[in-house]
Amino acid sequence: MPTPVYCVERPQVCKIIGQPTMRLLLVIIATLFAAHSVVLAEPSRIALEQKQRAETARAARARALSSLYRDAAAAPVGAGLTLGQYLDRVNGVDSFKDTLETAEEIGGPRWIDAKTCQVQWEITGKRVYDAVKLIVAQHPDGPINQIKLEHASAGWIKRSFCGVGSSAENGALAQVQPAALGGQWEVVSKKSREEALSAAKMNAVRRLSDSISKVALDPHSTVGDTLDKEQQQSVESWLSSLPIGRVEFGRDLNVDVTLVVDEPQFFDVVKTAVTKSATTQPAHPAWATVEEEFYDKMARPVGRSQAEADLGEPKHAAVSLPRQPPVWVEGDLGSSGFSGGGEKEPLKIALRAESDARTKLRVRVEALPLDKTTTLGEAAKSDPRIAAAITRAVSRAKATRTEYMGEAGARVWISLDLHHVWEELQR
Q: What are phi and psi of 373, to 5 degrees?
């Protein structure tokens, strides 16, 4: 007979349940509870991923809008001025950007990979002309008039202006690499590069946090004085979750990481943190004045760090260059690449075709003789410096012709002055 189990709350029920049965019941309850927790956690995880993707897409759109402005701002408008210079003189930048925000988004956000989003904006020259014409009418004493604008715009009124912006989720930062690993970056390990990227991002977070800490809330206190430790950490956590807008690798092993910051949202985050802090609150902060100073003192969202080169024993023997340049230095090398259709954007097809052409060109460069017994490709296998020099040289090749073939794709021809190869080898 099983030993009875007694419970305090409901003895009339529990004491008729045997101990083995009770254990089984507890296991079932625990299993159901765990399954319920998983079900609850899954929507939460999905919601977080959707929020991150939305933030990344928003950041890409903002960068595309900035790119679109730069493209349009370079257009001539008369009196020797570009559109950007004219708008600066008449304080018309904000008004013009309102027009750009009505531009057409081509194809919606494109996810280049699981973490990186790209957005393309486009606006016709006619709409740009109409917007500028209105601004000119509002500034009759400005440096240009309608006649000058009409004459200067003849070269661009029938074209379209385009802006492309990309952004990556924070989780993608560790995978970012220099576009062409070369020079000093050849001797940087994956671990060192990832550490430098992470340190650069945290440097950007600290710079932003430190800069707004000096903002005055009243004559006697600042944001930094008022935020308690918990709320300070919440602000820095929010900054750390921002999408990555740009990563730049320098030749001196410096790496810069730019965060994409929505300034009004950043201000709201800090304002909320201030009101939640356990420290003594300012009596009546003039938030409009605080916000103005906030934007003035906010640092650029860029952080920098430096990677460490691997100074261990060289893995390959250095190859000596001949004293005299090879005879091929006086020539050129060309190549062509092809990319099939399947994309709505011709530019993207052409870029893939150009990449294919550079891959083929590198093969031809590596086949060049360095001396009587060794080709550049063979030397590159023994000496990373030569491999890096080839990479840099191939990147200097110029596109000489692009042929679009509709749905069939595109072909791109490139050419490389071989003097550039010798120059890079001697660096």
A: -120, -10
